[in-house]
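Pair request: fold both.
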Amino acid sequence: EENLFDELCDLESLNLSYNHLKQLNIEIFDNLINLKQLNLGLNKLESENYFKNLTKLENLSLPGNNWYSISENTFKNHQKLLCLDLSQNKIKTIESNSFKKLNILVKIDLSYNSIEYISPAIFDELDHLKSLAICYNNLTRIESFNFEKLTKLENLSLSKNRITHIDQNSFLNLENLKTLKLAYNLSLIHI
């Protein structure tokens, strides 16, 4: 229904998780101008355009859907985002500027996907990121400077990947790191 939420302009939190939603009308959330929390977890959604106008979002939860990639402009209107959960999807590719402008993002969960590669500058603008989970993916290598700009990072989880090699400067500038998880990378042969 295109007009389902049109009268709910003061709504701040919406939970549509654990349904069987395959697609949504592209304008379904357009009048939810005060929405801060949106949970669309455990559906069957593939598209990413339906929340583009929710500029006040602070918490976006999309685990357990059918996302295969994250494109460059997906989150460009979400500068107030603090927490982003993209776990349990089928994400294989993340374009290099996907998280651009998410300067106040504190937590991102990319676990349980199919990510094989992290481009060197992908996290560069995440100045306030404290928690990053990329466990249960298909990463084979952690390259120098992948996390260099994440100076406030406290928790980094890279467990259960296929990591065989970790470059020498992979964790450069992570002075605030308290927890580093690299367990169950059964092919890890070089540190």
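--- second member of the pair ---
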Amino acid sequence: TDCVNSGKPLTFEETHLLPTGKQVWLTSLNPLRDEHGSITTLIGISRDITESRQQADHLRESRERLFSYFTFAPLGIYIADLEGRYRLVNPAACQQSGYTAEELLALSIPDYLPGESRDAGLALFRRTIENGRGHGEMLLQRKDGSTFWAALATGLLPDNRVIGYVEDISERKAIEAELHRSNSELEQFAY
């Protein structure tokens, strides 16, 4: 064996198919030497790690599933630290902002707020930290300088980071503005 040839301890996993199902064993082999340094015996210890392996596999699958939810979410998801620096963003956030993930992670919340929304955006951020959640509608500024209307829902995470879900509502705002204009015109005719 490799343990005898190398003269060094060896640890490896073995999988066995038994009538009761698959079992995974962690085995350690250690060479014992006589007074002349020759290997005379191997001492081996095996431990059934099936349950811990299943738990690790389940945890990995859960993490992968949750990450896919984050990655494929239709809304922009922005996670910021308590100073307002972005720490994690999903692809939808990049698409709606025009920034790459690396560029967004170099920014902070005020960088994404045009002047007319800065006070409201920072107030929403502070409210989220104080109350644990918040929501609002405001203009956000893309990388190219253009703006878009966004609905934001925010929450304070257990690790003291702030998560923001951002939906582009520019189309809805345009329809509302047109409806308001039409109503104003109708009111003029009514008098």
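Observation on the second member. The first strand starts at residue 10 and ends at 18.
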